């Protein structure tokens, strides 16, 4: 059976979106609020699944000329990216949101070809922005981990 790149991308986006939505379903909103920790993941996962569906529907209108070839290097890169996300998930509680997110963004930026200074700048600034949005605006309790003594 031959798959086009669009078919694989669409199916992966639909599956990932469905898995994320199912995972976010269990997050109950805190008392007195209309949304909680699962609100943003549900929006993102719905968008991912919808994008995957649109890619699949668009694929049906085009000819199936581009056949996807799976090479070892591509599989290794995807596996490494998945491993980084799994390690992030495992480190989130003990190390805390800030340390784990800086480490993940730093590694991912280098992984995708960013320079060392840009990886450092992006990881620190993006983590600060995420902290502000989730902790200060949306009132989501983020794990402090090792930084608990300096938590505010």
Structure description:
With 152 residues, the protein is an all-alpha fold. The chain folds into two domains: 1-69; 71-152, no CATH class. Helices cover 68% and strands 0% of the residues. Helix 1 (5-24) runs antiparallel to helix 2. The termini are far apart. The model has no long low-confidence stretch (mean pLDDT 85). The chain crosses the membrane at residues 7-27, 39-58, 70-89. This is Tripartite tricarboxylate transporter TctB family protein. Residues 8-143 form the DUF1468 domain. Keywords: Membrane, Transmembrane, Transmembrane helix.
What is the strand and helix layout of this fold?
Elements lengths: L4 H20 L14 H23 L10 H24 L1 H15 L4 H22 L15
Helix pairs in contact: 1-2, 3-4, 4-5
Keywords: Membrane, Transmembrane, Transmembrane helix
InterPro entries: DUF1468
Pfam families: TctB
Main sheet?
A: none
Mean pLDDT: 85
Whole-angstrom Rg: 19 Å
Count of folded domains: 2
Q: Number of helical runs?
A: 5
Beta-strand content bin: under 5%
The total beta strand count reads: 0
Keywords: Membrane, Transmembrane, Transmembrane helix
Protein name: Tripartite tricarboxylate transporter TctB family protein
Transmembrane segments: 7-27, 39-58, 70-89
InterPro entries: DUF1468 (IPR009936)
